[in-house]
Amino acid sequence: MFGKSSKPAPAPAPMPLPAAPLSPSPTLSAPLPVNTQPQEPKVRSARVDTLIGRGTTIDGDLQFSGGLHIEGTVKGNLIAENDEATLILSEQGRIIGEVRVPSMVLNGSIDGDVFAHGKVELFEKARICGDVYYNLLEMAVGAEVNGKLVRQKPDANKTKPVAPALPTIPAPTPALESPVENNNSAN
């Protein structure tokens, strides 16, 4: 009726092997290709301004802005100078000290406390020996935190304007009667 066939259209069949018979079922689809290469964790594309390569060791505190990618070792505290800074710590990277950054992507190891008021992404090889103070946390299976996970509420001044305080209205008090002269008193 209305010029349409009642049979479903068959899916395109894969090229058969010479010895394999064709499948009579039109609903089978071609097998999905198998990826035999190991997959690297997908790291979001962040701008990298500074790279600390493998084999490099920095002994001392480090302040940075922008994107910092660490594949080597930093022995000291790591502090971001602005709110747009991002730390990327690769699988071979290691930090021994306190870390204070807005956001970080971690697949290496940190021995020290971590303070991040933005997002913390922990991939499967991530290892933290210390407390993690975070706003948003994404943790893959296999990641390890040996310390406390403490969620910090976002700073009210940075995320939304503060509402003005409501005026306080005092509770109603019973009216005090004013002293009335007694006209019935005899003089």
Q: Low-confidence runs (pLDDT<50, min 5 residues)?
A: 17-30, 37-43, 156-164
The quaternary state of the protein chains shown equals single chain
Q: Order the strands across the largest sheet as they lie in space.
A: 1-4-7-10-13-16
Order of helices and strands: EEEEEEEEEEEEEEEEEEH
Describe it.
By secondary structure, the protein is mostly beta strands. It is built from one helix and 18 strands. The chain has a six-stranded parallel sheet with strand order 1-4-7-10-13-16, with no helix packed on it. Strands 2-5-8-11-14-17 form a six-stranded parallel sheet, with no helix packed on it. The chain is elongated, with a radius of gyration of 33 Å. It starts with 49 loop residues before the first strand and ends in a 28-residue tail after the last helix. The relative contact order is 0.09.
Topology readout:
Blueprint: E1 50-52, E2 57-59, E3 62-64, E4 67-70, E5 73-75, E6 78-80, E7 86-89, E8 94-96, E9 99-101, E10 103-106, E11 109-111, E12 114-116, E13 119-122, E14 127-129, E15 132-134, E16 136-139, E17 144-146, E18 149-151, H1 156-159
Parallel strand pairs: 1-4, 2-5, 3-6, 4-7, 5-8, 6-9, 7-10, 8-11, 9-12, 10-13, 11-14, 12-15, 13-16, 14-17, 15-18
Kindly summarize this structure in a few lines.
This protein has one helix and 18 strands.
Task: Name the features.
187 residues; mainly beta; 6-stranded parallel sheet; 1 helix; 18 strands
